[in-house]
Design brief:
homodimer, 84 residues, mainly alpha, Monooxygenase
Chain lengths: 84, 84
Amino acid sequence: MNEVTLLGILAGTLTTISFAPQAVKSWRTRRTKDVSLGMFSILCTGVALWITYGVLTRDFPLILANSVTLALAFLILAMKIRYG
Amino acid sequence: MNEVTLLGILAGTLTTISFAPQAVKSWRTRRTKDVSLGMFSILCTGVALWITYGVLTRDFPLILANSVTLALAFLILAMKIRYG
């Protein structure tokens, strides 16, 4: 595996796990007033389409990364809807 | 252009523009208390690495989409640092 591939894996890992701190923060504080409902609605839709795209093109890394992102983003969206 | 490519473009457009509603909301309310500093710090780092990856692999759509994402995510990060 060359350096460029490793850079791509690192980039993908960071953008995927970046949603974890927001999920943890919202879970702990039960406050999501300043979080945008629009952002997480559009994001979940887009990420779900990325998973569909990954399935159609049989791109396993794309499916894996976006599945983790969707789980985290959907959790944040659910808390936003719950806590307002 | 086939349906699968169009699906990928739609997915990329949605995940990219999803950050706009959060930027607009934070800009208008000047409140970012419930927004995670960790999320936007890690996200900006990851997206900057995606742009670097795109430059190294000469992938123009990847550079374009991630540049828009970085501009929006960095704006949200700056407001989070400013407003607390």
